[in-house]
Design goal:
With 265 residues, this protein is of the alpha+beta class. Helix content is 34%, strand content 30%. The chain is built from 8 helices and 15 strands. The strands form 3 sheets. Strands 4-3-5-6-7-8-9-10 form an 8-stranded mixed sheet. A 5-stranded mixed sheet has the order 12-11-13-15-14, sandwiched between helices. Strands 1-2 form a two-stranded antiparallel sheet. Strand 3 and strand 4 form a beta hairpin. The longest helix has 23 residues. The relative contact order is 0.14.
């Protein structure tokens, strides 16, 4: 018996956006009491809450119903085998530290890994009431409206987001900051959420994002959205495993290339 082909991405956009919003509502139900809820430390400044685990469990259940032949891989331990060649990569709450402290910059991230690279993504930031989706043949949309393509950076107005995992060496972090401040002369933002940092690039609020130590689940949804808008990233996905930690830049082509030329990433 021949196996049915996977569902088209276009047919999955609406149900996946609805799923991300359902997961976001579940996270919001914990949000006001997150600082008093069950919070554990995976490492220094690296937190996990009961909300992370409940949201990932919800995403896993719904995805198994929606795409039963697809694999699922999640930050909080989900590992479901599949037969379709597609893998859904989950970050139930990207920006848990912000979530615990009562900040707005956190999001549910659902990314598709296919043909050894990020292919499509949905990001929902509940507090900011923001939903982005897109990638591959699916145009990027923000709250249902098409997003415009990225334009070249404006000289003298450069802004770049940064994300440094706490385990990254201090000198490596300082090297990046020196490059951005001294060599490129830009302002710096640090939101504490990889997804939201790349959303800022997609919306034109910053020109690029530089990360040391991000995980694949941090960026699997955001990078294909960015690429669909004409952005780029410096990750060689042919040599990258889902379990790897990442050092990369992404964003407007001109800015990303300049970072690559100047910085050791």
């Amino acid at each position: 018996m021949r196996r049915a082909p996977p569902q088209s991405l276009a047919s999955l956009v609406a149900p996946l956006e609805a799923l991300a919003q359902e997961a976001g509502n579940l996270a919001l139900s914990h949000f006001c009491t997150a600082n008093r809820a069950s919070v554990e430390e995976k490492g220094h400044l690296d937190l996990v809450t009961r909300a992370d685990r409940e949201v990932e469990a919800l995403l896993r259940r719904r995805l198994q119903q929606l795409c039963p032949d697809d694999a699922i891989y999640g930050e909080e331990g989900t590992s479901v085998a599949g037969t379709s060649g597609r893998t859904w990569v989950l970050d139930p709450i990207d920006g848990t530290f912000n979530f615990v402290r009562g900040g707005a910059d956190w999001a549910v991230s659902i990314g598709l890994y296919e043909a050894d690279r990020p292919a499509f993504g949905v990001i929902h930031a509940p507090v900011r009431q923001t939903t982005l989706s897109g990638g591959g043949a699916v145009p990027a949309h923000l709250n249902g409206a098409p997003l415009p393509a990225l334009t070249p950076p404006i000289p003298g107005r450069g802004s770049i987001g940064v994300g440094f995992h706490p385990q990254m060496a201090t000198e490596a972090r300082l090297d990046i900051l020196r490059c951005l401040w001294d060599d490129m002369g830009v302002t710096i933002r640090c939101s504490g959420s990889s997804s939201m940092s790349i959303v800022d690039v997609a919306r034109g609020e910053t020109d690029a994002y530089v990360a040391l130590g991000d995980a694949t689940w941090d960026v699997m949804a955001a990078l294909p959205i960015l690429r669909s808008l004409g952005g780029t990233d410096t990750i060689d996905w042919s040599r990258t495993r889902l379990t790897d930690r990442l050092r990369f830049a992404c964003g407007r082509v001109q800015t990303t290339q300049r970072i690559l030329d100047l910085a050791r990433i």
